Amino acid sequence: MTAPSGGAMTEVDPTVTPPGPARAGVGGSPPDRLASSDSALDRPAGASPGSAPVGPAEADWVAAVAAVRRLPPDGRVLLICHVNPDGDALGSMLGFGLGLRRLGVGRLQATFPGPPEVPEPFRGLPGLELLVPATEADPEPDLVICFDAASESRLGELADRLTGAGTALVLDHHASNAGFGDVNLVDPGAAATSVVAEELLARLGVPLDAGIAECLYVALSTDTGSFRFDATTVAVHEMAARLLATGIRPGEISRRIFDNRPFGAVRLFGEVLGRARLEPAAAAGNGLVWTYATLDDLARHDQQPYVLEALIDPVRCTAEADVSCVVKQTGPAEWAVSLRSKGAIDVSRVAVALGGGGHRLAAGFTGRGTVDEVIARIRTELDVPVVEGRIDQQR
Fold it and tell me: What is the per-residue pLDDT for 54?
């Protein structure tokens, strides 16, 4: 299934409801939404060690609401998420797009860079009719909204939309996001970008319905590992409860997202897991486990690249290693690298040093060269000492 061609033009009630009040526990830095990281790289400049990451200021929320509300009646909105979109990227973007449609925004498109192929687990998401290929995305929208992209580079050929005459609004939760939009709602303490998207919808006065809720639930559940990761807080469960109250079926959604895999992918996983390597002495003695998958592996088992996104889960279960890594070939001498930590090592530090980003317990980057060369760079960065929350400069 590919994204439908052409823009999604929707005739809806143009009445804009008044903004709703911010809920306790979202927006800003409330005590019940703590970050999953306390590393120096996960804090904004100026934050003191041990402090929770600082989310958007009230002025940022006000500016974001204003950017949506000042759209002209025939205003054009382009929603963009990152390349190779995951559940949080697609779910946040489509859920927010459905919310904008309820506000009466008719000239609305959603897209992402690269081939316009939606991964199989997400092909049942509401709002897919909003998708257009990147080649057909509006070149001069009045408002661009980016979802779950830690940097402009993650937007590929669509990054130029940020420099047009329209306003660029960024919604994200990656600690490495420096803020590349005109208005930035970046909350490193949020478990998923969907947390930020839900809050902005609430401030715009958009009530949740089953379609919006399903998209946001997929986004929230995928980025929290089905509510298993450390980022799963009281506020996360409260948001899940609001979404479930619309009548969506969590069991059905979870089976589609987490428990549905082609047999070819099962065979592929077995082969790739069979070549996993354990290095107990790596990561300052905390242990590293890693494996890799090539384009030939995918072709041999007749599988699409998206199936490899779930491969990190069985690898990270290795008891003898704090750090897990899956290296996935995306082109000649080019690899998408996924890193996970159980808590002893800040993998965002490694990813940032190698040109990527992410969170303390989950991060990634694009590696180049051979698999051995990519792994060698990871080993080197894992062993760089950290002194008082900062990378040791004596390298």
Answer: 79
Please identify every stretch of the chain with a pLDDT value under 50, giving residue numbers as ranges: 1-52, 388-395
CATH number at residue 376: 3.10.310.30
Query: Model confidence over 101-151: pLDDT tens digits?
Result: 999 998 999 999 988 889 889 999 999 999 999 999 999 999 999 999 988
Nearest to 214 by CA among 90, 102, 111, 83: 90
Inter-helix orientation angle 193-203/210-223, to 10°: 150
Task: Order the strands of the 357-358 sheet from edge to edge.
Answer: 277-279, 288-293, 323-331, 334-341, 362-368, 357-358
Is the full-model pTM beyond 0.90? no
Integer Cα distance of 143 and 146 in angstroms: 10
Neighbours of 74 (CB within 10 A): 8
pLDDT value of residue 266: 96
Residue 58 tokens, joined: 């009230």
Q: Same structural domain for residues 336 and 230?
A: no
Q: Which of 58, 40, 41, 57 is nearest to 49 (CA)?
A: 40
Strands (DSSP E) contained in the chain are 8-9, 76-81, 107-111, 143-147, 167-172, 183-186, 277-279, 288-293, 323-331, 334-341, 357-358, 362-368, 386-387, 390-391
Copy the structure tokens of residue 52: 């929770």
Tell me the C-alpha distance between 67 and 169, whole Å: 8
DSSP 8-class letter at 207: P
Residues 267, 247 share a domain: no
Hey, what are 26's tokens? 């979202």
As a whole number of angstroms, the distance between CA 349 and CA 337 comes to 14
CA distance 332 to 342: 31
The two three-digit tokens of residue 389, written as one number: 């929350």
Instruction: Tell me how crowded residue 297 is: count the other CB atoms within 10 A of its CB.
Output: 17
pLDDT given at position 387 = 52
Residue with tokens 């009230």: 58
- The SS3 call for residue 316 is helix
pLDDT of 176 reads: 83
What per-residue confidence (pLDDT) applies to 386? 62
- The tokens of 243 are what? 């979404």
Report the length, in residues, of the chain: 395
Q: Using one digit for the tens of pLDDT, what is the confidence trace for 69-83? A: 999 989 999 999 998
In 10 A of CB 359, how many CB atoms? Answer: 30
Same domain, residue pair 244 and 312: no
Same domain, 290 and 168: no
